[in-house]
Amino acid sequence: MTTTGRFTLPSEENFADKTKELAALWGADAIRNSDGTHLDEDVLSLGKKIYSAYFPTRAHNEWITLHMDETPQVYLLTQRVLAETDTVTIDLMATFYEEQLTPNYDADPARYWEVIDRTTGEIVDPERWRVDTATHTVTVEGAEPMHEYTVSFLAYIIWDPVEMYNHLTNDWGDKEHEIPFDIYHPATRQFVMDTFGKWLADNPQVDVVRFTTFFYQFTLIFDQKHREKVVDWFGCSCTVSPRALDDFEERYGYRLRPEDFVDGGCYNSAWRVPRKEQRDWIDFLSGFVRENVKVMADMAHEAGKEAMMFLGDQWIGTEPYKDGFDELGLDAVVGSIGDGTTTRMIADIPGVKYTEGRFLPYFFPDTFYEGNDPSIEARDNWRKARRAILRSPIARMGYGGYLSLAAKFPKFVESVEHIADEFRDIHERTGGEAAEGELEVAILNSWGRMRSWMAYTVAHALPNKQTYSYYGILEALSGMRVNVRFISFDDVLEHGVDDDIDVIITGGPVDTAYSGGDVWAREPRLAATLRAWVRGGGALVGVGEPSSQWWQGRFFQLADVLGVDQERYQTLSIDKYFPPVTPEHFITADVPVDGTTAAAWRDAGYRIPLSGCGGGQGIAPLGGIDFGEPVANTFPVSEDVTLIRADNGEVQLAVNEYGKGRGVYVSGLPYSAANARLLERILFHASRNEDRYAAFSSSNPECEVARFAKSGWCCVVNNTDRPQSTDVTLDGGRVEHVDLDDSGIAWFRI
Length: 750
Prior knowledge:
One of its GO terms (molecular function) is 1,4-alpha-oligoglucan phosphorylase activity. By secondary structure, the chain is an alpha/beta fold.
C-alpha cells in the first residue's frame, strides 16, 4: 500500500503528466529540479513542496567573462622534467586539460610560483627561470644535469568541474561551458549576493533553496585526455587566489608556499599526516566560507524559504563536523547515498533540523540505457543505506537526474515504490529514533571528529585497492549495534580517553593521517596514555599498521598492547616465534574461517558472502574471512599472544591480554557480512562484553538486528538479494526463527 511523504522527486521540462503519476506512485511530497533542468508551471502547480537547485558560483557567464581574473584558482604541479644540460624547459599544461584550466599570468609568477629541483628539494631562484606565455612553458637556466625539475603554478579554473562532468557524461554538445567564479573577490562577492537576492524575489514558488553547493569545489582536476587526474573529496586545492594568500599572510604572520598546496604531487590528500600549514589554511578558508554561507542562509530565511546544503560539489570550507557549523543557520543537509558510510556522513551531521539522502542510481544515461537494469543498483544501494538508517536515521530520501530516463524502466519504478514505502514504514514504527547501541566505539586518527565518517576515503564511496581493507571497517560499523564517534590523537593528548568509551579502533598504512606518522615519536605521552587506559580495562583494536613509526627499535609503538609488531628489515637477525593458532575462539564462533566451518554454515541454510568491497577488489575465498591487502612480515611479540589467524608467516588476527584490558590486531577487513560479524565479535570480546553479545543478535551474519527501545520495536533485515533464514535472539533470551525474502525486513514487539 502506497504511503506519502519524506520523498523528493526530480522533474524536468515537458514532463508534467508523468511527474504527477510518479509522484503519486512514489509518495513524493516535494519536487526538485536537477542540474540543467527546470520545472514547468504544471509541475509547480501540483501542490508539492518545491526545491530549487541554486548554484552561487556558476551559471552566470555574462558576469565572469568580463572578470576572468576572478575565477577560482588552483596550484598545479607539472610533470617532473629531466635536465640533460644546464637548461631545461617545462611544459606547464602537458598533463592538464586546457578547456578546464589555464595558467594565471596576471599575478607575478616570481612571487606566486615556484620552481623546485626535485633531486635536491631546493627552490630555484626566480632570476634563473623565465615564463613564455605564448607556449605555456618555463625555462630554467643553470640547471644541474640529470636532476629533475618541476613548476608549481597558479591556474584559473575556467570550466566548472561538476558541470563539465555532467556535460561530458550527457553529451550536451554545443552547450556553453559554465565558468565558475570566486567570491573572495569583493566585486564578484557582491554580484553573487545581489544575484541571489534578485533570484529570491523572482522565485516566490520555491520553498527550499537547495544550495548545490556554495563556493569552492573539492579537488577535481582532469588531464589532457579528459580523464580524472586528481580527485580528492576533501581537497582544498581549488581555493587559492593571490588576494587570499596575501590576506592569510597578514593574519597568520607567515606566507604559504606553492609547495604547501601541491605537496610534492600529493595535493594534501586527507591520507597525508596534516601539517600546520594545511590546518591553518582550512581554518582560514572555513572562516571565510562560513561567514558567507550564513549571509545566504539568512537571505533565504528572510524570503520565507528554507536553506538546504548539498554535501557535495562545492562543499569545501563548510566543514559540517567542525565546531560552529550549527551557527550557520542552515535548515538541512542533503547528500548522495553511496553506501552505509556515506549515509552516516550525512545523518550524523549536527546543527541542522533534518537531513536528506539522495539515493542511487542517478537518473543519467550512464546507468539508464537499453539493456541495463537500474533496479539492481537501486536495491543494492537501499540495502547498504538501510543498515545505517536504522542506526542513525535521515529524515527524507529522494533521487536526482532526468525523470524521463527513469520512467522508461518499469522494474526500476516498481523498486523505488517499494523502497520509498519501506523507508516511510521505518520512520512510522520508530518515530525517527536511532536503534540502541550496545557499545561505545571511538575511531582514533589525526583528523578526529572533523572527518567523521570520512576516514579512509579518497573519492565518495569508492574504495580502491589501497583503501578497501580499512574503509570496510567504517562500512561495517555504519550499521552495527554500536555507537560510533571519531577522536583525534590531539584529543587523547589534551583530554585523555572519555570514560564512556568501550573500544578504540586505530590504524592505517604507515606515514598516514590514520596511523599517525611521527606523532608517536614526537609525543611519547600518546602511547603512555593509551597504554594506561587499556591496562586499566580499556580495549584497543589496531588495524593494518597501527601506531607505526620506526622508533627505539620498534615499528608498532603499541606492539606491547596489540601483541603484534612488523619486521621492517631492521631486526632480521632476531628470531620470531609464532604460537599455535587457536582454532576455536569467541571472535570466530559463528564466522566461517575454514572449509569445515563454511560447509556447516551452508548446511544450515546460510549464505556465504563472496565479495569484499565495491569495485570487485578483495574477493574472499569461499568460506573464508577476507583480510584484504596483506600486511607483510607481522609477527607476535610474545608466545602468550592468542593467535587466531595467520597466513604465510604473517599475523592476520590476534588477541593480547594487557592488564585488565585487551588489545586486538587485525590486518584489514574489507566490507562483507562475514567480516562485519567478525568485527562485531572483536569489539564485544576486546571490551570483555561477551555476555552481552547474544541479546538482539542474528545467527546469520547476512542478517542484522536493530532494537528501538523507546518505540518498543525490534527488526531484522536481510542485507542480500537472496532469501535468508536466521534465528533472532530477543529480550529475555527468546529466540525467533525468521525466513526473509531478498532484501526483506521483519518486525517484532519487545
